[in-house]
Design a protein that fits this description.
Two copies of one chain form a homodimer. Chain A is built from 14 helices and 16 strands. The first copy, chain A, is α/β, with parallel strands linked by helices. The first copy, chain A, has two domains: 240 residues, Aldehyde Dehydrogenase, Chain A, domain 1; 150 residues, Aldehyde Dehydrogenase, Chain A, domain 2. In chain A, helix 6 links the parallel strand 3 and strand 4. The first copy, chain A, is globular. The N and C termini of chain A lie far apart (54 Å). The interface between A and B is large, with 63 and 63 residues.
């Protein structure tokens, strides 16, 4: 891994393998997946031994307990990884399906056909289950995979990877379909990001700074989201009990994730009735509130700090919430389109016209009527797992699963047609 | 247009308009399109007067006659532009259509819904009809458009744009939906290419150097193809009459375009029977041949120059053809995947197994069985027109029409669901 040549060799091997993966039979892929799930369970003690090394290192480095929690593999978590692989085995295989059949007057039959993207390069940070999820999703979608995990979980990642690749090679998956960069220096990543044409897509998973750096350096298309500044808008026609339950869930069910609510927008008509009891619940749950002037007029000023302009743009990922009272649906939509990150936003309303206007005009990849933003997730969307979440405008948006890991090509059947 | 501020203002105006375009009724869009087609015909003399200025300038600058031919607007060509707009009016409207409906056990209904991309920025060179095509395609797909044409056709472009925008504004298209940068200095383009988040996609149309420059500078996703090194492979099981007719058409029907054949691959089993008469036809048509050693052994050496390694990578766009004899289907596929540009490639064969292997394993965006590569074109694919052709792996591939100018978002309907 020391020089550019060996990095390029990995990428070229993955490319060569990808040429063969597109014609792999679905039954073959599913059989490999099921064997992989079994092997994970059978190798539990081997994987947990590797994980213990990472945990020891992390504790020695005095990393935060939330961090160590994400890193730790338990019986249940390894079972969870295996379940997830079995879920992916059950999904429909998109490769080879025909999106559209166009018959032309000259007799040409044009099939818009789903094909794998090619070579997928995933850069990730601390959670070892990402290793298994990526392998399952890329195998099912017929893509070659190059994994590059963070240093914190390196032993766990290598152990999981080795177990799964052994199954793959025993069961006839083309050589070099699954690859892992087993060192954690940045050099290899930087070289990879220049291999336009060999690697087809880069998926960075982790903090905003990692993703920004990858996007800046990469000559290869990147599927990504920088951050999730997600909103719940409580409309003047909202069912206020439902609004309270959704807002509380969106903020607190798991505050540290990208689809958690960061800003609550409330219509001025209902704010005086809605905000006092809602704020009480949040404060009891330990949430710090930061409000606009109107919010602070309605609530006890002492319980709500003034929100600054920067608050509307901040992904707290923490027990902090900004609150703004708006005077119209249009103002809510305008606020979200200005400060939001196109991740996940919700409206709570019983008014159909308001709902449709919001759902149409808010420019987010996942947009909810009367439900919590916390559902933006590959599993919750029925995709088995996800390789990432995208807020881009092109190709994949929202949770990225097996289907989004494919693209299409036009296959044209003729019987001698020439152009006049 | 002199400073960054005014450029940014155009982009922001386009963005604001794009928020409204997604909910425009299909019938309204189609009515505007039909009026635009009419207005083009009615303003023929106005447009041709502007075109004469461009032609004079081009002749003064002693540009090539092929170039002047592309620039010139005639009665017939203006009629062609109007016809093309009417074709786009007849196409189905993709906006709002539901790609997929997912019902979840918790009652959530997830609609994967087609939406416009947002703001499209097209940079193009000499053909004035591109102005009308882009306006029609973006209007139908609900996108805001910013056009920036080359200096050669600037008067024609402005005339066409002004005629069509007048119709748009008279018929209630949101203000700032259609925009043109009417100066031709590079500064405005460079500023635009940095407006990530405001402009959603850039489509450069023109020579390879323009496209490379745009791709290098842009922070916004680019839909593009650099060049088309297209192949026809004559298999050992080919109908040789069909192979001759397709090869001749692919090279000569219009040699200067991206989907014309640049390299002919012939299986060694049929090369001695196929190549002599084929070569004769090409030479009679004025085509210079460059062959591999085997080709030169089969044909008279004097009629075929030796092909160099660089020939296999060259898009001649001219009366030059490289020829290679291969010993197997696999060698043909390997050659195309190595030297091709994922644009358009064809196999001529009567063997179904060979056909399917080629169609699956060749990594091109448009791939033909027994037909000429010259059909890769928005109109020929039934898309009315095209805003460009893409050889990228993500989002749009092949001819880019109304449908490819949309993306999707997930619209999720709940009745109070929260995540457990």
């Amino acid at each position: 891994m020391k020089d550019a040549k060996s990095v390029r060799k990995i990428a070229e091997g993955a490319k060569a393998a990808s040429r063969l993966l597109g014609s792999l039979k679905t039954s073959h892929k599913n059989a490999i997946l099921r064997e992989m799930a079994k092997a994970l369970i059978e190798s539990k003690s081997y994987i947990m031994k590797a994980n213990k090394k990472d945990l020891k290192k992390a504790r020695d480095r005095k990393l935060k307990s939330a961090f160590i929690d994400r890193l730790e593999l338990t019986d249940k978590r390894i079972q969870g990884m295996a379940d997830s692989i079995n879920e992916v085995a059950k999904l429909e295989d998109p490769v080879g399906t025909i999106d559209k059949l166009i018959k032309r007057p000259n007799g040409l039959r044009i099939r818009k056909t789903r094909v794998p993207i090619g070579v997928v390069f995933v850069i990730y940070e601390s959670r070892p289950n990402v290793t298994a999820d990526c392998i399952a999703l890329c195998l099912k979608s017929g893509n070659s995979l190059i994994l590059r995990g963070g240093s914190v979980a390196i032993n766990s990642n290598i152990a999981i990877f080795d177990v799964l690749r052994k199954v793959a090679s025993k069961m006839g998956l083309p050589k070099n379909s699954l690859n892992m960069i087993k060192t954690t220096d940045r050099k290899a990543v930087n070289i990879m990001l220049g291999l336009e044409g060999t690697i087809d897509v880069v998926i960075p998973r982790g903090g905003e700074s990692l993703i920004k750096e990858v996007s800046r350096k990469s000559r290869i298309p990147v599927i990504k989201h920088y951050k999730g500044v997600c909103h719940v808008y409580v409309d003047e026609y909202a069912d206020l009990n439902m609004a309270e339950s959704i807002s509380f869930n969106a903020k607190l069910q798991r505050p540290g994730v990208c689809n958690a609510m960061e800003t609550l927008l409330v219509h001025s008509e209902v704010a005086p009735r809605f905000l006092p009891s809602m704020a009480k619940k949040f404060i009891e749950a330990g949430v710090e509130l930061r409000g606009c002037p109107l919010t602070r007029r309605i609530l006890k000023r002492a319980t709500v700090k003034p929100a600054r302009e920067s608050d509307w743009r901040t992904e707290y990922l923490d027990l902090i919430l900004s609150i703004k009272v708006v005077n119209s649906l249009e103002e809510a939509i305008g606020h979200i389109n200005k400060y939001g990150t196109s991740h996940s936003d919700a409206i709570v309303t019983e008014n159909r016209e308001h709902a449709m206007k919001f759902l149409t005009e808010v420019d987010s990849s996942s947009i909810y009527l009367n439900a919590s933003t916390r559902f933006t997730d590959g599993y919750e969307f029925g995709k088995g797992a996800e390789i990432g979440i995208s807020t881009d405008k092109l190709h994949a948006r929202g949770p990225v699963g097996v289907e989004e890991l494919t693209t299409y090509k036009y296959v044209i059947f003729g019987n001698g047609q020439i152009r006049k």
